[in-house]
Amino acid sequence: MENGRDPRALSRRSVLFAAGAASLATVFRPRVILSAVEGNVIPSAVEGRLAQANDPLPSWNDGAAKRAIIDLVVATTTPGSPNFVAEGERIATFDQDGTTWVEHDPVYSEMLFSLDRVVELAHEHPEWKTTQPFDAVIGANKSAIASFTKTEWEKIIVATHTGVSVSDFNGAVKAWISNAKDRRWQRPYTDLIYLPMLEAMRYLRANGYRTYIVTGGTQAFVRAYAEKAYGIPPDEIIGTAVGTKFDGANGGMTLAPKLVLNDNFSGKAEDIYLFTGRAPKIAFGNTEGDAAMLEYTQSGGGAIAMLLVLHDDAAREFAYGPAEGLPDSKIGAFTQALYDKAKASGWHVISMKDDWKRIFSWQ
How far apart are CA 33 and CA 11, in angstroms? Predict the structure, then answer.
């Protein structure tokens, strides 16, 4: 596979999914069509009323994290404030997996989409039945899937994310996100978006901020559902991206097997600049892969806020670190080094257990 910019190739916390490959032995299942999902987006008129309410973040407990968000908005939007920021320059960035929605099923949702997509496309590729790694996926060989290498995951990503028109890929993702359900709660994946983060997005937008998803997941995947799920349009999705090829004769745009953006680690900061030309005023993440994004935010000066989500609520969601003695994790690890860096840098650590009254809208 060509690498357009970064020697880490199709990395998404090591090729999007490779860090969680061992967990697949307990989670792989063929594509199943289930009930449709309702969107999480509320009308703009309601957004405005929420922002003007006495408590713009009702699912947040009072604390340093909540206060940091509100103080940031007040400082940057009040005319005459020394930290006032013109509306067109107000930018907020959110990592997705583990920051705005659940990343444990026990693996990334896009990983499951890719496996289901192989099964769905198998009839078009009879050669896959005798070709690794596809034969393992088609045959539901759990042990083989659990031991996939980075190269094998790259093959699956290329096969399921490229060589099709943008419109066809969008349709495939929308169908999957509407029908698939997570293993633990048996709910659509868009039901697993964190309500406090939706409130933060709505509050920021109601105060003139553009809210960007900045994810190591693929840009095309997230763009297919983000507007309905988050209220964020496609042009405000920054993610790992493959190439595109325009067919002038047919007027179609095709996804091509070439890496254009590797949106993780330093790539997040670089791509934010590439898309926006300026540093965010507020950024949310949850792993080492988000640290550069927060550092870039901090470099902008003025009124700023940097926040990291710590998963420490096993009862309502999950508990994993290994920061602060929490269980270690191959998916979305929040290391002690990152925790210490956050404390030393003045970043806010959001405790799911202590800072969020509710995690999901249906709780």
Answer: 29
pLDDT in tens, 195-226: 999 999 999 999 999 999 999 999 999 999 99
Q: How confident is the model at residue 99 (pLDDT cuts 50, 70, 90)?
A: very high
Residues 99-110 have a mean pLDDT of: 93
CA distance 73 to 203: 9
Domain spans of the chain, in order of start: 2-36+108-179, 44-105+192-355
Residue type at position 141: N
pLDDT digits (tens, 9 = 90+) for 148-202: 888 998 999 999 999 999 999 999 999 999 999 999 999 999 999 999 999 999 9
Q: What DSSP string describes 157-207?
A: HHHHHSSSBHHHHHHHHHHHHHH-B-TTT--BGGGGB-HHHHHHHHHHHHT
Which letter does DSSP use for residue 126 in this model?
G
Distances 136 to 122, 153, 181, 286 between C-alpha atoms, Å:
12, 12, 22, 32
Instruction: Report the amino acid identity of residue 109.
Output: S
Which H/E stretch holds residue 349?
Answer: strand 348-351
Superfamily for domain range 44-105+192-355: HAD superfamily/HAD-like (3.40.50.1000)
Distance CA 280, CA 301 (A): 10
* Helix locations, the chain, DSSP H: 44-52, 64-77, 109-121, 134-138, 142-146, 150-161, 166-179, 195-206, 219-223, 226-230, 266-276, 291-299, 336-345, 352-355
269: left (phi over 0), alpha (psi -120 to 50) or beta: alpha
